[in-house]
Amino acid sequence: MAELKEEGYLRCLPDGNLLQTKIHNIGARLVGVDKFGNKYYEKLEGVQYGRHRWVEYAEKSRYNASQVPAEWHGWLHFITDHTGDELLLLKPKRYGLDHKQNFSGEGDAFIYHSKGHALNPGQRDWTRYQPWQPTKA
Amino acid sequence: MGLGLLASKAMRPASRIFNSQNPRNFLFRTIVSKPELQKPETSAAQAQPDPPPVDLPPRTPVAGARVHFPNPDDAIEVFVDGYPVKIPKGMTVLQACEVAGVDIPRFCYHSRLSIAGNCRMCLVEVEKSPKPVASCAMPALPGMKIKTDTPVAKKAREGVMEFLLMNHPLDCPICDQGGECDLQDQSMAFGSDRGRFTEMKRSVVDKNLGPLVKTVMTRCIQCTRCVRFATEVAGVQDLGMLGRGSGEEIGTYVEKLMTSELSGNVIDICPVGALTSKPFAFKARNWELKGTESIDVTDAVGSNIRIDSRGPEVMRIVPRLNEDINEEWISDKTRFCYDGLKRQRLNDPMIRGADGRFKVVSWRDALAVVAEVAHQVKPEEIVGVAGKLSDAESMMALKDFLNRMGSNNIWCEGTGMNPNADLRSGYLMNTSIAGLEKADVFLLVGTQPRVEAAMVNARIRKTVRANQAKVGYIGPETDLNYDHQHLGTGPQTLLEIAERRHPFYSTLANAKHPVIIVGAGLFEREDKDTIFSTVETIAENAKVVRPDWNGLNVLLLNAAQAAALDLGLVPESGNSIESAKFVYLMGADDVNLDKIPGDAFVVYQGHHGDRSVYRANVIFPAAAFSEKEGIYENTEGYAQQTFPAVPTVGDARDDWKIIRALSEVAGIKLPYDSLGAIRARIRTVAPNLVHLDEREPATFTASLKPASSQKITLTPFENVVENFYMTDSITRASKIMAQCSALLTKK
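The joint structure predicted for all components is written out below.
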């Protein structure tokens, strides 16, 4: 039962999209799983062309397209035939940033604010002078 | 809009086809150099046929230059691009072109330095001359026909530019001069789009010139402007040219720092990025900066400066041209004090609590406390001291405020307890700074202009170089950067000159334009009146003051002094501070704090937490000179105005506004609430202060003064400025100035 819940079968009852995906998965080839747990499927026979690659999101209740990391995006959208695992090897180690999904509508804490924005937690200090400290007095 | 545009749109492609010289390849036009353009002779021949226009449009000289004919007979006429100009004899071809309104590209030529003629960028074509001529070094001859925009001149300059760029690194993107670089600008006009140089570029080891000037010697194009500046204007033989050919480089002959108080100016005169400002390195680009034309307040010269700021921050200070005061140089203290404006700033009103600690309070509370205490003490126990950096408006407001409280014990620090404020000639530089250039004998009494007013010293040095003027100096041993005679150390020598016993007296008496400069440091001496009357005796005997020449000068020390004495900031009694109960220090950090009695209530109004804040009971944060509009009068009586470049910090306010607010809280409202109104009030007291950018000479000479009967003491004169780099609260807060005084002042 717990496993059923974990795999999202219970969520299929209210969520038709997920049910559709689950039905679609039958007989498909699991191409890879990214570090977030999203599963990428491919089925070449018996599906309409252009619907032969898809993703089952790891997050069953709150999923959106921005959860697909950059390396899998190309494979998923038929930009390339290289899978995300192959492309991950090309990602620069020193300065490659971790993928971050779009948190729009999820509250101020998740939204990107530019460095001068009043809500930016790591707000830069725009004071350009050093005040005198009356400590010694 | 409408028909005209449509017509032009329709016409354009057709006209391009018809006008194109080789219609065969008008579709793929690439940038090619045609053979006929590469041969100057043929293209000159092409240009020749059209006859020179008969009536040329009138031209304006470059930068509004005006020609002054010392002798009208010596005027000669030359033709610049066919345009006739009249110039005095002895002018160079380059100057003649400038008068004709043609700006000649140049690197090594600088109007205030000697002519070197080694960059060859200013080549022009002169008729009947076989080769192009370096115009900066060629004297203009009568009837000369100068051509500045012919293919020969252009090709010559392009050749020079190619050679200059050969060894110049391609680091404009990381160069601090980028955007204000002469080489960058002129390579846009004369540079090639590709190089033919395939060998390795030359590289030169960087030199350490001290904490102010950063060197990237590989960028140097050997124009030698800095060498000439150091030897001619700054008067230090620190820089020189070593090696020859491609091994040629600028350097200090032995490893040493540049010890001049004008060293920052080499940053301005360097046409490339070889010498740049070390504190400004990689801080900003010049196109991000907002320039505000303002006045320097770190000494009494009132040098004209431009404050370059970005947002709320002063990024750098550069000089502004003013022939009467600072020409185009400024001292290092002026240029590099700006980081002091960002440190140790007072940004909130504070009150010292019962436990001796400062507490941040609101303006309303702070003003209320001060107003209450001011009313509790007797009027004669109220004392006000204006600081070195005060502007005329705030001193006027402070004096009015104290007078309304019933006290007249107000003075400006540095003027002494008994200043001679009755006659303006008694405290001004009557000759004027520019007038010093006429002098042929100087007598410096108790003043070291090199540290007290570096720009005045540069003028004296210029005069000494130009006129071979003799300089006599009375005072402690010092290092003036020109030939001088050290006559003595104290009033003894002065007396000898006054009694005509000293050999220097005859030099002074025989001079055509003798100049005596008395230092304002003597104001603090007990026997100041006697010394001044002795000096006046000398002036009278040696005919220093004549109807056509006033050579008797006082060199002031602080920016506020002249205006303070003009406004009559003279204390009623000399020792009022010892019995004071309420002391108002307006930026006064050099008062003797030990003299203030322990139970006195001290208000400090200022912009820096310097010396006096530690004694203060209430602190009012005020604006620094870069943040306010204020009138300053310099030592020669030239009233000028600062302009706000950056906003005030924190809760600080303009000085005069604080006093105006305090007067209202105290119930004696001062009758002005705008800058115009307070200036109208100043006009009634000292009208010369509101005649901005104008020198108001003193009307009466000192001879009207009664003779003093004080006893002269024979104690020698003392050093007035101990450390050139740190004289006021801004420079004392500056890290750069602290570095300079650690490294550059003589031990």
